[in-house]
Design a protein that fits this description.
This protein has 13 helices and 15 strands. The protein is α+β, with helices and mostly antiparallel strands and 369 residues long. The protein has two domains: 159 residues, no CATH class; 104 residues, no CATH class. The strands form six sheets. The chain has a four-stranded mixed beta sheet with strand order 12-13-14-15, with helices on both faces. Strands 1-7-6 form a three-stranded mixed beta sheet. The longest helix has 23 residues. It is globular and about 70 Å long. The protein binds iron/sulfur cluster. The site of iron/sulfur cluster has 14 residues, from helix 2.
Protein backbone atom coordinates (compact mmCIF):
# COMPACT_ATOMS: atom_id res chain seq x y z
CA UNK A 1 0.00 0.00 0.00
CA UNK A 2 1.33 3.49 -0.85
CA UNK A 3 0.77 6.32 1.61
CA UNK A 4 1.07 10.03 0.95
CA UNK A 5 2.91 11.89 3.74
CA UNK A 6 0.84 12.27 6.87
CA UNK A 7 0.29 15.93 7.67
CA UNK A 8 1.13 17.59 10.96
CA UNK A 9 -2.60 18.27 11.46
CA UNK A 10 -3.38 14.55 11.09
CA UNK A 11 -0.68 13.59 13.59
CA UNK A 12 -1.97 16.24 15.99
CA UNK A 13 -5.51 14.87 15.70
CA UNK A 14 -4.22 11.31 16.19
CA UNK A 15 -2.28 12.42 19.28
CA UNK A 16 -5.31 14.16 20.71
CA UNK A 17 -7.66 11.20 20.18
CA UNK A 18 -6.80 8.27 17.88
CA UNK A 19 -10.48 7.50 17.43
CA UNK A 20 -11.16 11.04 16.18
CA UNK A 21 -8.44 10.52 13.57
CA UNK A 22 -10.13 7.37 12.27
CA UNK A 23 -13.54 9.04 12.27
CA UNK A 24 -12.01 11.87 10.20
CA UNK A 25 -10.96 9.30 7.61
CA UNK A 26 -14.36 7.60 7.40
CA UNK A 27 -17.07 10.13 8.19
CA UNK A 28 -18.00 12.78 5.65
CA UNK A 29 -17.87 15.79 7.97
CA UNK A 30 -19.66 18.15 5.54
CA UNK A 31 -22.88 16.21 6.11
CA UNK A 32 -22.72 16.51 9.94
CA UNK A 33 -23.60 19.47 12.14
CA UNK A 34 -20.66 21.72 13.04
CA UNK A 35 -19.61 22.29 16.65
CA UNK A 36 -19.95 25.84 17.98
CA UNK A 37 -16.18 25.94 18.63
CA UNK A 38 -15.41 25.00 15.01
CA UNK A 39 -17.96 27.54 13.75
CA UNK A 40 -16.31 30.28 15.81
CA UNK A 41 -12.85 29.45 14.41
CA UNK A 42 -14.17 29.25 10.84
CA UNK A 43 -15.95 32.59 11.28
CA UNK A 44 -12.83 34.32 12.52
CA UNK A 45 -10.70 32.96 9.67
CA UNK A 46 -13.31 33.97 7.12
CA UNK A 47 -13.63 37.58 8.28
CA UNK A 48 -9.92 38.19 8.73
CA UNK A 49 -9.70 38.04 4.93
CA UNK A 50 -12.11 40.97 4.70
CA UNK A 51 -9.62 43.14 6.54
CA UNK A 52 -6.99 43.06 3.81
CA UNK A 53 -7.03 45.20 0.65
CA UNK A 54 -7.73 43.43 -2.66
CA UNK A 55 -4.26 44.16 -3.97
CA UNK A 56 -0.73 43.90 -2.65
CA UNK A 57 0.18 47.38 -3.92
CA UNK A 58 -1.77 50.30 -2.46
CA UNK A 59 -1.98 54.10 -2.60
CA UNK A 60 -0.61 56.53 -5.19
CA UNK A 61 2.95 55.27 -4.60
CA UNK A 62 1.89 51.64 -5.08
CA UNK A 63 3.54 50.58 -1.80
CA UNK A 64 3.63 46.91 -0.80
CA UNK A 65 1.11 46.48 2.08
CA UNK A 66 3.59 44.31 3.96
CA UNK A 67 5.93 47.32 4.33
CA UNK A 68 3.42 49.98 5.50
CA UNK A 69 3.83 51.92 8.74
CA UNK A 70 1.22 51.85 11.51
CA UNK A 71 -0.54 55.02 10.26
CA UNK A 72 -0.45 53.96 6.61
CA UNK A 73 -1.80 50.56 7.50
CA UNK A 74 -4.95 51.85 9.18
CA UNK A 75 -5.59 53.95 6.06
CA UNK A 76 -5.30 51.02 3.67
CA UNK A 77 -6.84 48.17 5.65
CA UNK A 78 -10.58 47.79 5.07
CA UNK A 79 -11.24 48.77 8.72
CA UNK A 80 -9.57 51.87 10.05
CA UNK A 81 -9.24 50.93 13.72
CA UNK A 82 -8.94 47.82 15.86
CA UNK A 83 -12.26 48.51 17.60
CA UNK A 84 -14.09 48.95 14.28
CA UNK A 85 -12.79 45.58 13.11
CA UNK A 86 -13.53 43.82 16.42
CA UNK A 87 -17.08 45.23 16.44
CA UNK A 88 -17.65 44.19 12.83
CA UNK A 89 -16.48 40.61 13.28
CA UNK A 90 -18.64 40.04 16.38
CA UNK A 91 -21.55 42.10 14.97
CA UNK A 92 -21.77 39.88 11.88
CA UNK A 93 -21.70 36.80 14.12
CA UNK A 94 -24.53 38.15 16.29
CA UNK A 95 -26.63 39.06 13.32
CA UNK A 96 -26.00 35.94 11.21
CA UNK A 97 -25.43 33.10 13.68
CA UNK A 98 -27.50 34.32 16.63
CA UNK A 99 -30.09 36.50 14.87
CA UNK A 100 -30.48 34.56 11.62
CA UNK A 101 -30.11 37.67 9.44
CA UNK A 102 -27.56 38.05 6.72
CA UNK A 103 -26.81 40.26 3.78
CA UNK A 104 -26.99 38.78 0.30
CA UNK A 105 -23.53 39.53 -1.09
CA UNK A 106 -24.86 39.97 -4.65
CA UNK A 107 -27.82 42.24 -4.00
CA UNK A 108 -26.69 43.83 -0.70
CA UNK A 109 -30.19 43.14 0.73
CA UNK A 110 -30.81 41.69 4.16
CA UNK A 111 -32.28 38.20 4.03
CA UNK A 112 -33.56 35.86 6.72
CA UNK A 113 -31.54 32.72 7.43
CA UNK A 114 -32.12 30.07 10.08
CA UNK A 115 -30.14 31.03 13.22
CA UNK A 116 -27.38 28.63 14.19
CA UNK A 117 -26.57 27.59 10.62
CA UNK A 118 -23.21 28.14 8.93
CA UNK A 119 -22.25 27.03 5.42
CA UNK A 120 -25.52 25.10 5.23
CA UNK A 121 -24.55 23.08 8.34
CA UNK A 122 -26.41 23.31 11.62
CA UNK A 123 -24.20 24.58 14.46
CA UNK A 124 -24.48 22.69 17.76
CA UNK A 125 -23.40 23.93 21.16
CA UNK A 126 -22.07 22.58 24.43
CA UNK A 127 -23.98 24.91 26.74
CA UNK A 128 -26.62 27.62 26.73
CA UNK A 129 -25.19 31.04 25.87
CA UNK A 130 -22.01 29.70 24.25
CA UNK A 131 -22.91 31.79 21.18
CA UNK A 132 -22.69 35.01 23.24
CA UNK A 133 -19.33 34.05 24.72
CA UNK A 134 -18.15 33.31 21.18
CA UNK A 135 -19.22 36.82 20.09
CA UNK A 136 -17.13 38.35 22.91
CA UNK A 137 -14.10 36.21 22.02
CA UNK A 138 -14.44 37.12 18.34
CA UNK A 139 -14.42 40.80 19.21
CA UNK A 140 -11.37 40.44 21.45
CA UNK A 141 -9.59 38.36 18.80
CA UNK A 142 -10.33 40.95 16.09
CA UNK A 143 -9.09 43.88 18.19
CA UNK A 144 -5.89 42.08 19.20
CA UNK A 145 -5.13 40.84 15.68
CA UNK A 146 -5.45 44.38 14.31
CA UNK A 147 -3.20 45.75 17.05
CA UNK A 148 -0.53 43.11 16.33
CA UNK A 149 -0.61 44.14 12.68
CA UNK A 150 -0.24 47.78 13.65
CA UNK A 151 2.69 47.09 15.95
CA UNK A 152 4.69 44.88 13.61
CA UNK A 153 3.21 45.32 10.13
CA UNK A 154 1.37 42.72 8.09
CA UNK A 155 2.78 39.23 7.66
CA UNK A 156 3.62 37.94 4.18
CA UNK A 157 0.34 37.67 2.27
CA UNK A 158 -0.70 35.52 -0.67
CA UNK A 159 -3.21 37.19 -2.98
CA UNK A 160 -5.54 35.19 -5.18
CA UNK A 161 -8.07 36.52 -7.68
CA UNK A 162 -11.06 34.84 -6.01
CA UNK A 163 -10.27 34.44 -2.30
CA UNK A 164 -8.50 37.78 -1.51
CA UNK A 165 -5.42 37.66 0.72
CA UNK A 166 -4.45 34.80 3.01
CA UNK A 167 -1.72 34.37 5.62
CA UNK A 168 -0.87 30.69 6.16
CA UNK A 169 -0.10 27.87 3.78
CA UNK A 170 0.70 24.20 3.75
CA UNK A 171 4.10 23.40 2.25
CA UNK A 172 5.82 20.19 1.17
CA UNK A 173 9.55 19.72 1.60
CA UNK A 174 12.18 16.98 1.87
CA UNK A 175 14.48 16.36 4.78
CA UNK A 176 17.15 13.68 4.36
CA UNK A 177 15.21 11.98 1.55
CA UNK A 178 11.84 11.92 3.33
CA UNK A 179 8.91 14.07 2.27
CA UNK A 180 7.03 16.11 4.90
CA UNK A 181 3.99 18.32 4.89
CA UNK A 182 3.90 21.26 7.29
CA UNK A 183 1.68 24.26 7.98
CA UNK A 184 3.49 27.57 8.08
CA UNK A 185 0.83 29.78 9.59
CA UNK A 186 2.50 33.19 9.33
CA UNK A 187 5.81 34.55 8.08
CA UNK A 188 7.04 38.05 8.69
CA UNK A 189 9.58 39.75 6.49
CA UNK A 190 13.01 39.60 8.09
CA UNK A 191 13.37 36.01 9.26
CA UNK A 192 10.48 35.63 11.70
CA UNK A 193 7.79 32.96 11.58
CA UNK A 194 4.84 32.25 13.85
CA UNK A 195 1.11 31.98 14.17
CA UNK A 196 -1.89 34.00 15.30
CA UNK A 197 -3.97 31.74 17.54
CA UNK A 198 -7.03 31.49 19.72
CA UNK A 199 -5.54 28.71 21.80
CA UNK A 200 -4.21 29.96 25.09
CA UNK A 201 -0.67 28.59 25.28
CA UNK A 202 1.93 28.62 28.01
CA UNK A 203 5.59 29.30 27.29
CA UNK A 204 6.31 25.69 28.24
CA UNK A 205 3.79 24.34 25.75
CA UNK A 206 5.27 26.50 22.99
CA UNK A 207 8.84 25.49 23.86
CA UNK A 208 7.94 21.80 23.61
CA UNK A 209 5.61 21.92 20.60
CA UNK A 210 6.99 19.60 17.88
CA UNK A 211 4.90 21.39 15.21
CA UNK A 212 6.98 24.53 15.81
CA UNK A 213 10.15 22.52 15.08
CA UNK A 214 8.57 21.14 11.91
CA UNK A 215 7.48 24.60 10.71
CA UNK A 216 10.96 26.05 11.36
CA UNK A 217 12.58 23.15 9.51
CA UNK A 218 10.22 23.70 6.56
CA UNK A 219 10.94 27.45 6.52
CA UNK A 220 14.74 27.10 6.62
CA UNK A 221 14.77 24.22 4.10
CA UNK A 222 12.54 25.93 1.54
CA UNK A 223 14.29 29.31 1.89
CA UNK A 224 17.63 27.54 1.37
CA UNK A 225 16.49 25.58 -1.68
CA UNK A 226 14.17 27.90 -3.56
CA UNK A 227 14.89 31.45 -4.64
CA UNK A 228 11.16 32.15 -5.16
CA UNK A 229 10.53 31.57 -1.43
CA UNK A 230 13.57 33.66 -0.46
CA UNK A 231 12.25 36.60 -2.47
CA UNK A 232 8.67 36.22 -1.22
CA UNK A 233 9.70 35.88 2.42
CA UNK A 234 12.46 38.56 2.17
CA UNK A 235 15.15 36.16 3.40
CA UNK A 236 18.76 37.27 2.98
CA UNK A 237 20.40 34.80 0.53
CA UNK A 238 23.72 34.95 2.43
CA UNK A 239 21.94 33.73 5.56
CA UNK A 240 19.81 31.09 3.79
CA UNK A 241 22.90 29.66 2.07
CA UNK A 242 24.06 28.37 5.47
CA UNK A 243 20.78 26.46 6.03
CA UNK A 244 19.71 23.14 4.47
CA UNK A 245 22.41 21.23 6.34
CA UNK A 246 25.36 23.33 5.08
CA UNK A 247 26.01 24.75 8.56
CA UNK A 248 22.65 23.83 10.09
CA UNK A 249 19.10 22.74 9.25
CA UNK A 250 17.29 25.01 11.72
CA UNK A 251 18.72 28.45 12.44
CA UNK A 252 18.45 29.28 16.18
CA UNK A 253 18.41 32.97 15.19
CA UNK A 254 14.98 32.59 13.56
CA UNK A 255 12.34 33.21 16.25
CA UNK A 256 8.91 31.55 16.26
CA UNK A 257 6.26 33.85 17.73
CA UNK A 258 2.85 32.93 19.04
CA UNK A 259 0.40 35.86 18.90
CA UNK A 260 -2.22 35.05 21.53
CA UNK A 261 -5.40 36.67 20.23
CA UNK A 262 -7.36 36.23 23.44
CA UNK A 263 -4.88 38.00 25.72
CA UNK A 264 -3.05 40.19 23.22
CA UNK A 265 0.38 38.87 24.28
CA UNK A 266 3.25 37.50 22.22
CA UNK A 267 5.26 34.44 23.22
CA UNK A 268 8.52 33.59 21.50
CA UNK A 269 10.54 30.41 21.19
CA UNK A 270 13.51 29.13 19.18
CA UNK A 271 14.75 25.82 17.91
CA UNK A 272 18.04 24.33 16.75
CA UNK A 273 19.20 21.08 15.13
CA UNK A 274 19.32 19.54 18.61
CA UNK A 275 15.49 19.51 18.58
CA UNK A 276 15.24 17.57 15.31
CA UNK A 277 15.57 13.96 16.58
CA UNK A 278 12.67 14.34 19.01
CA UNK A 279 10.35 15.88 16.40
CA UNK A 280 11.26 13.35 13.70
CA UNK A 281 10.87 10.47 16.16
CA UNK A 282 7.45 11.71 17.17
CA UNK A 283 6.27 12.01 13.55
CA UNK A 284 7.67 8.58 12.74
CA UNK A 285 5.96 6.96 15.74
CA UNK A 286 2.56 8.50 14.89
CA UNK A 287 2.89 7.53 11.22
CA UNK A 288 3.80 3.98 12.18
CA UNK A 289 0.87 3.69 14.60
CA UNK A 290 -1.52 4.95 11.91
CA UNK A 291 -0.10 2.60 9.25
CA UNK A 292 -0.19 -0.40 11.62
CA UNK A 293 -3.81 0.29 12.50
CA UNK A 294 -4.72 0.51 8.82
CA UNK A 295 -2.88 -2.77 8.13
CA UNK A 296 -4.78 -4.47 10.95
CA UNK A 297 -8.04 -2.86 9.76
CA UNK A 298 -8.27 -1.64 13.34
CA UNK A 299 -10.46 1.39 12.93
CA UNK A 300 -11.61 1.31 16.53
CA UNK A 301 -8.46 2.72 18.06
CA UNK A 302 -8.73 3.63 21.72
CA UNK A 303 -10.28 7.03 22.29
CA UNK A 304 -8.37 9.34 24.62
CA UNK A 305 -11.55 11.31 25.51
CA UNK A 306 -9.59 14.30 26.70
CA UNK A 307 -11.37 16.77 24.44
CA UNK A 308 -14.87 15.31 23.95
CA UNK A 309 -16.63 18.60 24.80
CA UNK A 310 -15.08 20.45 21.86
CA UNK A 311 -14.68 17.45 19.53
CA UNK A 312 -16.23 17.77 16.03
CA UNK A 313 -17.58 14.19 16.35
CA UNK A 314 -19.56 14.90 19.52
CA UNK A 315 -22.56 15.88 17.37
CA UNK A 316 -25.62 13.93 16.21
CA UNK A 317 -26.00 12.21 12.86
CA UNK A 318 -29.18 12.22 10.73
CA UNK A 319 -30.75 9.53 12.91
CA UNK A 320 -30.11 11.53 16.08
CA UNK A 321 -27.27 9.32 17.41
CA UNK A 322 -23.95 10.79 18.54
CA UNK A 323 -21.43 10.34 15.68
CA UNK A 324 -18.75 9.16 18.14
CA UNK A 325 -20.17 6.26 20.14
CA UNK A 326 -17.14 6.27 22.44
CA UNK A 327 -17.26 9.75 23.89
CA UNK A 328 -16.83 10.30 27.60
CA UNK A 329 -20.35 9.58 28.94
CA UNK A 330 -20.40 12.53 31.33
CA UNK A 331 -19.83 15.03 28.54
CA UNK A 332 -23.16 15.85 26.91
CA UNK A 333 -23.58 15.66 23.16
CA UNK A 334 -23.70 19.09 21.53
CA UNK A 335 -27.21 20.42 20.92
CA UNK A 336 -28.95 23.01 18.81
CA UNK A 337 -29.49 26.57 19.99
CA UNK A 338 -33.27 25.98 19.95
CA UNK A 339 -33.07 22.92 22.21
CA UNK A 340 -30.76 24.65 24.67
CA UNK A 341 -32.99 27.73 24.81
CA UNK A 342 -36.08 25.59 25.43
CA UNK A 343 -34.29 23.67 28.17
CA UNK A 344 -33.19 26.92 29.79
CA UNK A 345 -36.77 28.17 29.75
CA UNK A 346 -38.00 24.97 31.39
CA UNK A 347 -35.37 25.22 34.13
CA UNK A 348 -36.40 28.77 35.01
CA UNK A 349 -34.20 31.57 36.42
CA UNK A 350 -30.63 30.63 37.39
CA UNK A 351 -28.78 31.22 40.61
CA UNK A 352 -26.34 34.01 39.57
CA UNK A 353 -23.77 32.79 42.12
CA UNK A 354 -23.54 29.28 40.70
CA UNK A 355 -20.51 28.97 38.37
CA UNK A 356 -21.06 27.57 34.88
CA UNK A 357 -18.58 24.69 34.90
CA UNK A 358 -18.92 23.90 31.20
CA UNK A 359 -18.24 27.48 30.26
CA UNK A 360 -15.25 27.63 32.55
CA UNK A 361 -13.74 24.48 31.15
CA UNK A 362 -14.21 25.13 27.45
CA UNK A 363 -14.20 28.89 27.04
CA UNK A 364 -10.54 28.64 26.09
CA UNK A 365 -11.08 25.80 23.62
CA UNK A 366 -8.48 25.11 21.00
CA UNK A 367 -9.29 27.30 18.05
CA UNK A 368 -6.86 28.65 15.54
CA UNK A 369 -7.08 30.77 12.44
S1 LIG B 1 -15.95 12.49 21.13
FE1 LIG B 1 -14.22 12.07 22.48
S2 LIG B 1 -13.76 9.90 22.21
FE2 LIG B 1 -15.04 10.54 20.50
S3 LIG B 1 -13.62 11.07 18.87
FE3 LIG B 1 -14.07 12.93 19.97
S4 LIG B 1 -12.48 13.14 21.54
FE4 LIG B 1 -12.44 11.00 20.77
Amino acid sequence: MVFSPITAAQVERYDECAFAYFLSQHVHSQSMPMSGFAAEGAWFGRYVHRLFPDDRFVGPDMKNVETLSKEELSKHLNYHSSVAFGNAISGWWKSYIIGGKRVDERTGREIEAPPGVLRARAVEWLYHGQWWHAAARLKRGGVNLYEFFQEEGLPVLTFSSDGGASIGREVAFEHKGKKHLAWIRAIRRGHVIGEYGYRVKTQNALDSDWKVTLALLAYCTLAHEQEAYRIKWAVDARVANRWGGVSMYIDPDVPYRYYDLQHGVVLETRRSDADLPEMLGRLEAAEQAIINSIDRRDFKASPSRSNCGACPYNVRDMSGRTVCDRKYPRVSTLRSMKELKEEEKRKGPKDPNKPNRKRKKYMQASLEI
